[in-house]
Write a structure and sequence with these properties.
The complex is a heterodimer of chains A (about 450) and B (about 1000).
Chain A (H helix, E strand, L loop, with lengths): L1 H16 L12 E3 L7 H29 L4 E3 L4 H7 L8 H23 L10 H26 L23 H18 L11 H14 L3 H12 L25 E5 L9 H5 L10 E3 L1 H8 L11 E3 L5 E3 L11 E5 H15 L2 H14 L10 H15 L6 H7 L3 H5 L13 H6 L10
Antiparallel strand pairs in A: 2-4, 3-7, 5-6
Chain B lengths: L4 H10 L2 H17 L8 E8 L10 E4 L5 E3 L5 E6 L5 E5 L6 E4 L5 E5 L10 E4 L2 E4 L7 E4 L12 H4 L7 E4 L10 E4 L12 E4 L2 E2 L26 E7 L2 H4 L10 E6 L6 E15 L9 H18 L32 H4 L3 E13 L3 E13 L6 E14 L4 E15 L11 H6 L23 H7 L2 E19 L2 E20 L11 E24 L3 E24 L14 E24 L3 E12 L8 E12 L4 H4 L4 E15 L11 E3 L11 E4 L8 E14 L4 E20 L8 E24 L3 E18 L4 E3 L5 E3 L7 E5 L1 E4 L6 E3 L13 E6 L4 E11 L2 E11 L2 E4 H6 L47 E3 L2 E12 L7 E9 L3 E3 L19 E2 L7 E10 L1
Parallel strand pairs in B: 1-7, 13-16, 44-49
Antiparallel strand pairs in B: 1-4, 2-3, 2-5, 5-6, 8-9, 10-15, 11-12, 13-14, 15-16, 17-18, 17-50, 18-19, 19-20, 20-21, 21-22, 22-23, 23-24, 24-25, 25-26, 26-27, 27-28, 28-29, 29-32, 30-31, 32-33, 33-34, 34-35, 35-42, 36-37, 37-38, 38-41, 39-40, 42-43, 43-46, 44-45, 46-47, 46-48, 47-50
The chains are: A mainly alpha (about 450), B mainly beta (about 1000).
């Protein structure tokens, strides 16, 4: 019975110790949402989390909406949802629009946490200057997020407070397109006053705000303002310049070049999967989509594409592929705003304002950099068309073509999109199911 | 061999089922034998053996009509005295037919006992104990795994298809050792696991794959670490009466695995089993030739040009026009390249098992070693398992026994991506690449086509390996505190170390341009401690009362670390450490469970049986307010046959009516921290850390509760020659764990809640008959058929799963329903598909997608016939499933009408397309991808997956050899034929191991047809 006593004693001690804290298990890779933004370091961490969310929606899916919907890219894979953008028959079930929609609102929630909590953080290390900069960056990111939303869908729900329970931020009807644009400019104004006028190509500064304002006013057809803000950025010639040849801003693993006003940072530990969609199998990609014949023809023409032919290359089966995102591992930056865009914004704004010579000068700066002859257009309409065509090639693999043609009202004549309803994409079907307050865009 | 009462009691509780019954049965004889001191006149000696001549220890030999008797010793010998010649000896032993032998003049006997086919006295393992079948209240199926051991699958669960009523098993793939879908009475949850709980010798083992490398949606099975040859018996607990003692883990049924143990007083027995065989695909897909492919592409081109003039597609610029005109050559000039033949092979199968078992009066042991090697029919995949089993039991005093069970296994796999995904996808490369495309480019270099890898390069350079090291062990001690009161404590451990390495060199897509390697290591550790105290006593002659109380404490920890490397100097460097750039990550989760349970049972006169049980489980995974769950059950049975009014009905051997009701729970698959509001790291920017909201808190998160009601009848007739078991059940699961979609405006995709309700209703019928029981010839039949009707009773919003949202979980429909556009017919004038316009708005939109069937069969089951004739034995087993649907996703791509041009294969079935007015076919004229005729989610590829399959056919012969105890030669064929209307290769194929994406057949090798020969020697 001795043995038995030992056994019993051991067993009982286990039963007793099994009570108490045994059922309290804390995670190690996460923290409680009750104590998140509490000091300088955690404020910085939360802001970086917002940049990370921006990358997550912007770099592949959002950009793909912009370029696939244009007329430069063909689909070569098996996912027909890609083709839907190309032939302008996007279904509400399309998985790309679903992930962009939710990706942008995830970003907005992270931003809202920063805007909501950082001002109240009590930490002697958190000086007003630093605090303002962080909140200013958050406002800039939110402006960019809503700008992206409104460009794709028109009016959307405006969310400006962080979510802390499942009941927050739902059941909110879509605001109008005008209200979204008002939200964008309001955030940009706040960002502009809070941010310092420093140069940082990976983070928002006051200069980044100016650049986005220039784009914003161009979309708003406030050409004077567009010119004014483009001018402010271009004027900083020591920080921003067009690099020569054209591929100098992306070739040879360069990042953070002077061409960039705002680019998203990637490294071997924070990789960009964008290359996988473009690169052929021989380079480890899927070549899910590729430059179409028309684009290849234009880019390959030395008088039209010039040195921009560096954007495309041929694989071992003689198939063309886009080569802007090529690094392995995927450390390619995502170019949000390049100085080239500001020249073309200013050219367009000036052309619209009737400053033909100045407009032409800006356009020809871009053409010259591409190694092609200057444009000799003289009429406003010709210059505007020349700018449109230049943008097509200058940003051949960047997300401008579709948004440009929509904002200029040229989508019908260029892309043969006869149904004006198709200029806005459908609200993702799953969102309509999840929130009855959302209403679908007309025509879907 | 004599038992003292105390010994017999300690012995009774924890030895194997057979021995427990032995002890119970012999108890009276032991008492009686002490009194047998009558005058000795004649001494009789003899030996009792089984049919194979193996001595049986502990057999009761009694003189009929007297109290005199003896038990055989370890070699089966007995010695007994009788008063006069002509006395009759009664030889009885558990599991064998009792024999009577008249003595006359003979004094030496050799008695061979015949195995008993009767079921009533069979001992069945139940939760925390054992029971005789006749006293069972719950619904429990017992399976002898030996019949199906030869079916080439890595894990025993894959071998059990069709064996057990109410248990639906789908193999999913022809790759040995990959996960199998096992559903006991349907599925109860959307987001929590639906797998049953596996308990090996009392240890709750992990059944979730630790695989992290991508093999196209597939996952390895941790159950494959267990050598089926080490399993003595399997009990499947199905209703609430049987499972409620497993509380929060019991909702999906419990599979109790009892491994082999030695026997006390048995001389060492050595068993060797060797088998070898081959396996091959029964058929392969039929593909278009190069010219046929080109013809279809041209047709598509011209058709789309007519449909949409702005595309500027016409006869003149068709893709397959003369090379001189800038085309790819005329259709008839195209070559045809076979790729399937390169990846499929005749696979070899090998299995070796060696075991030694035996025991002394106080010690018994079982030592087993096994090696199993199976190639997949798909190169280069294989599965290899080396296992060691060591079980030991030791009596250390009259009242105390200790023991240990150990399973060690090392499972090595060469893996490959058979399923979905372009990079490295074997079947994608071999099946989905158009046949007209040469594997070489213009420069004579091997290249991958259509976005897939080159098959030859893939086969030469595949390098994905995994090693699973598994230990499952249990150490116990049990003691008789008082007569009838037993205490037992045990510690169990399930430890699994899972090591994976991949290397993709620069010739493969994944490794381009300069090599890619991963190395990862995962560990799953479960420890479990339990104590039970049990008391059983018979009061008077009619009242038997039992009580069991116990507790368990367990902890599960999962950890994983992984690293990747990119950039290798050349293809000879294969480890992450030699890469230019590396990354690393790790994960950790832990979940603790503390439980208390009790069962009370009462048996009145062997006629009325009732029991009540309850388990309380506390889990660390739930919100603080809902940490504890309570799972009660009650069951009763009436053995009608024992009543006076049926006693004399001779044809009826037994009749029992059972009913039970109870509650079980489910928390598996939930995640250890699902109730907490969390922010996570891992959102860095510019090389500095970032944090972000990860999930919203739900302090109310709690168990899924499954209420189950079961009514059953057990009956047998004609001296148990016909046995019937019938069950009807209704399971209702509420508080179903669900990731509820949140509007994206919250910033979260979903949050965990208890929001679904799912029901399963059905019946199970099992019939076993002894058709012929002759001296030389026997024929037994086992048949079972089950029906389960699954339904989502409550789900706020439908959930879409699978490629192209082929699966929709929707309130009112079964889980895993297929969501498709219903093709009515192909218009013989236009060649266009006409779909059902459900909402009759004149156009086909998403609103016209409808549910057309599900993965669930209307009926399923199995039929087993076994025959013996002298030394020969034949076992034929077939399984069937009726009414289940499969989405033939290979065909969806392969019958794409040419619209995918050079990007995809075209199946030969596409040759039957509509070409001109008047053509009657169900294959429309080629138009665009997902335009109309070849629309994503069309019902044309949703097929009837009903089947009847010969799962196995074994013919054996026992060779009479003097020096050996037994020698058996056998040949086994499996999957010898398959009757199905399904046009794919295997209606059980499923591309994904993900719970909500079943029934989609893409890039999956079929279960092979195999033949094996073997030899089994017992010394």
């Amino acid at each position: 019975m001795k043995a038995f006593k030992y056994i019993l004693a051991t067993a009982l001690s286990v039963i007793l110790t099994s009570c108490g804290n045994f059922l309290e298990v804390e995670p190690r890779a996460s923290i409680s949402d009750q104590q998140t933004i509490i000091d300088k370091a955690s404020s910085e961490n939360a802001l970086r989390g917002a940049y990370d969310a921006l990358r997550a929606y912007y770099s592949v899916n959002f950009q793909s909406i912009g370029y696939l919907s244009g007329d430069n890219i063909q689909w070569t894979g098996s996912q027909s949802q890609v083709q839907e953008f190309i032939n302008h028959r996007v279904n509400a079930e399309n998985s790309t629009i679903a992930s962009v929609w939710s990706g942008i609102y995830t970003t907005i929630n992270r931003i809202n946490h920063v805007i909501d909590k950082v001002p109240a953080v009590k930490d002697p290390l958190l000086t007003d200057a630093v605090r303002n900069q962080m909140v200013g960056e958050a406002y800039f990111l939110r402006a960019l997020a809503y700008f992206d939303l409104v460009r794709v869908w028109g009016g959307v729900p405006i969310i400006t407070k962080p979510t802390s329970t499942p009941d927050d931020n739902r059941g909110i009807a879509r605001a109008t397109q005008e209200e979204i644009y008002a939200q964008v400019i309001s955030d940009l104004e706040k960002a502009e006053t809070l941010l310092p006028a420093t140069t940082d190509r990976y983070r928002a500064t006051r200069k980044t705000v100016w650049a986005l304002k220039a784009r914003y006013y161009l979309y708003q057809k406030n050409h004077a303002k567009a010119e004014e803000f483009a001018d402010k950025v271009i004027a900083d010639a020591t920080s921003y310049k067009l690099l020569k040849p054209f591929n100098a801003f992306f070739a040879n693993d360069v990042r953070g070049s002077e061409e960039s006003v705002f680019e998203l940072f990637y490294s071997i530990n924070e990789t960009n999967s964008h290359r996988g969609q473009w690169q052929p199998q021989q380079n480890g990609g899927t070549r899910q989509w590729a430059p179409n014949d028309a684009l290849v023809e234009l880019l390959s023409d030395p008088t039209i594409g010039g040195t921009r032919s560096a954007l495309v290359a041929r694989d071992n089966q003689n198939r063309w592929y886009g080569n802007l995102y090529y690094r392995s591992p995927g450390t390619d930056p995502t170019y949000v705003i390049r100085i080239a865009e500001l020249y073309l914004i200013r050219a367009e704004a000036r052309a619209q304002l009737g400053s033909i010579t100045e407009a032409l000068a800006d356009l020809n700066i871009i053409r010259e950099r591409a190694g092609i002859a200057k444009s000799l257009a003289t009429k406003q309409a010709d210059i505007l068309l020349a700018i449109e065509n230049e943008r097509r090639l200058e940003f051949a693999l960047e997300p401008h073509r579709w948004f440009d043609l929509v904002r200029t009202g040229r989508a019908e004549s260029v892309l043969k999109v006869t149904d004006p309803n198709k200029l806005l994409l459908p609200i993702p079907a799953e969102q309509l199911l999840a929130d009855k307050a959302l209403k679908q865009n007309p025509g879907y | 061999m004599h038992f003292t009462p105390k010994e017999s009691i300690s012995f009774l509780r924890y030895v194997t089922p057979i021995q427990m019954w032995l002890a119970v049965f012999l108890f009276p004889f032991v008492l009686l034998s002490h009194q047998a001191n009558a005058s000795e006149i004649i001494i009789l000696k003899g030996k009792v053996t089984d049919q194979a001549g193996e001595g049986l220890p502990g057999v009761s030999v009694q003189v009929k009509g007297t109290l005199r008797g003896d038990l055989t010793d370890a070699q089966g010998n007995f010695e007994i005295s009788v008063e006069q010649p002509g006395d009759v000896l009664v030889i009885s032993y558990v599991g064998f037919v009792t024999q009577e032998v008249r003595t006359v003049r003979q004094t030496s006997f050799h008695i061979k006992l015949v195995p008993d086919q009767k079921q009533l006295n069979e001992v069945v393992v139940v939760g925390y104990g054992t029971q005789e079948r006749k006293n069972l209240i719950g619904s429990i199926s017992k399976v002898d795994p030996s019949d199906v051991k030869q079916i080439p699958a890595g894990s025993f669960d894959a071998q059990l298809q069709g064996k057990v009523a109410g248990v639906q098993i789908s193999s999913n793939t022809g790759v040995p050792g990959e996960s199998v879908t096992v559903r006991v009475r349907g599925a109860t949850s959307i987001n929590a696991d639906n797998d049953p709980l596996y308990v090996v010798d009392g240890v709750f083992i992990n059944s979730n794959s630790l695989q992290t490398v991508g093999t196209g949606g597939k996952a390895t099975s941790p159950i494959a670490d267990i050598n089926p040859s080490d399993i003595e018996s399997l009990e499947i607990l199905k209703d609430a009466e049987a499972t409620a003692l497993y509380g929060s883990r019991g909702a999906n049924g419990v599979i109790l695995i009892t491994t082999k143990r030695g026997k006390f007083n048995q001389k060492a027995r050595i068993n060797l089993n060797v088998s070898q065989g081959v396996a091959k695909a029964a058929k392969l897909w039929e593909l278009t030739t190069g010219p046929e492919h080109a013809q279809l592409v041209n047709e598509w081109w011209i058709n789309t040009g007519k449909d949409t003039p702005s595309l500027n597609r016409n006869e003149a610029n068709r893709p397959f026009r003369p090379i001189s005109e800038g085309g790819r050559g005329l259709p008839e000039e195209q070559q045809t390249y076979d790729r399937l033949g390169q990846v499929f092979r005749t696979a070899s199968l090998k299995n070796y098992d060696l075991s030694v078992s035996g025991g002394t009066a106080t010690t018994k042991y079982y030592i087993g070693g096994g090696y199993n090697s199976q190639e997949s029919i798909l190169r280069p995949i294989d599965f290899n398992r080396a296992s060691l089993k060591f079980n030991l039991d030791q009596k250390i005093s009259d009242r105390v026994q200790v023991g240990i069970s150990n399973t060690f296994a090392r499972t090595f796999r060469n893996q490959a991506r058979a399923g979905d995904g372009p990079a490295g996808g074997l079947l994608q490369a071999a099946l989905h690449t158009p046949t007209y495309l040469s594997p070489y480019n213009d420069n004579g270099v091997l290249v991958g086509r259509a976005g897939f890898d080159n098959v030859e390069l893939l086969l030469d350079n595949y390098d994905v390996k995994s090693v699973s090291l598994r230990y499952i062990g249990n150490i116990y001690a049990e003691a008789d505190i008082l007569p009838n009161l037993k205490f037992r404590t045990s510690w169990g451990l399930d430890f699994n170390n899972y090591d994976e390495n991949e290397y993709w060199n620069n010739l493969l897509i994944s490794g381009s341009p300069d090599g890619f390697a991963t190395a990862s290591n995962g560990q799953a550790t479960t420890w479990i401690n339990e104590q039970t105290l049990s008391y059983r006593k018979k009061f008077g002659t009619k009242h038997t009362f039992g009580i069991l109380v116990g507790n368990t404490v367990q902890s599960n920890v999962m950890t994983g670390t992984s690293s990747t490397g990119r950039g290798f100097a050349n293809n000879s460097f294969k480890l992450v450490s030699s890469a230019a750039t590396t990354t690393g990550s790790s994960n950790w989760s832990k979940n603790n469970l503390s439980s208390f349970f009790s069962r009370l049972d009462y048996n009145y006169d062997g006629r009325y049986l009732i029991d009540f049980s309850i388990r309380a489980d506390g889990s660390s995974s739930f919100g603080a307010d809902n940490r504890w769950g309570y799972f009660p059950s009650v069951g009763g049975a009436w053995r009608v046959k024992q009543e006076d009014f049926l006693k004399d009905v001779r044809i009826l051997s037994d009749l029992k009516i059972r009913a039970s009701y109870g509650v079980t729970g489910n928390q598996n698959g939930l995640g250890s921290f699902a109730a907490l509001g969390l922010w996570g790291g891992g959102t860095p920017y510019q090389g500095a850390p970032g944090i972000a909201p990860q999930q919203l808190a739900n302090p109310n998160l709690k168990w899924e509760r499954t209420n189950q009601f079961n009514v059953g009848v057990d009956a047998s007739f004609f001296d148990e020659r016909i046995g019937l078991e019938f069950n009807v059940y209704h399971k209702n699961t509420s508080n179903g764990l669900l990731s509820i979609a949140l509007p994206a405006t919250t910033g979260f995709p979903n949050y965990r809640s208890n929001a679904a309700e799912i029901s399963n209703k059905g019946f199970e019928l099992g019939i076993r008959t002894v058709n012929v029981q002759g001296r030389n010839f026997t024929w037994n039949t086992d048949f079972n058929i089950s029906r389960n009707v699954n339904k989502i009773e409550r789900l706020e919003n439908p959930l879409e799963y699978g490629s192209r949202s082929l699966i929709l979980q929707k309130e009112g429909s079964p889980l895993y329903s297929f969501w498709v556009y219903k093709q009515l017919y192909v218009d013989s004038q236009t060649g266009n598909t006409v779909y059902e316009d459900v909402n009759q708005d004149g156009k086909i939109t998403i609103a016209d997608r409808q549910i057309m069937g599900s993965i669930w069969p209307k009926f399923y089951g199995g039929l087993n016939n076994s025959f013996t004739y002298k030394g020969f034995d034949v076992n034929a087993f077939l399984s069937f499933s009726y009414g289940n649907k499969v989405y033939n996703h290979n065909k969806f791509f392969g019958e794409g009408g040419g619209a995918r041009d050079a990007a995809r294969i075209i199946f030969a079935s596409n040759n039957d397309r509509w070409q001109k007015p008047g053509d009657v076919t169900d294959v429309p004229r080629p138009d665009g991808v997902n335009v109309n005729n070849y629309r994503d989610g069309g019902s044309r590829w949703l097929e009837d997956g009903s089947f009847i399959r010969i799962r196995s056919l074994t013919i054996g012969y026992k060779v009479p050899v003097r020096k050996l105890t037994a020698l058996r030669l056998y040949v086994t064929g499996s999957n010898l034929f398959l009757i199905t209307k399904y046009t794919g290769l295997d209606p059980e194929s499923s591309a994904s191991s993900a719970q909500n994406e079943q029934g989609i057949d893409l890039g999956t090798p079929p279960q092979p047809r195999s033949v094996q020969v073997g030899i089994n020697v017992t010394l």
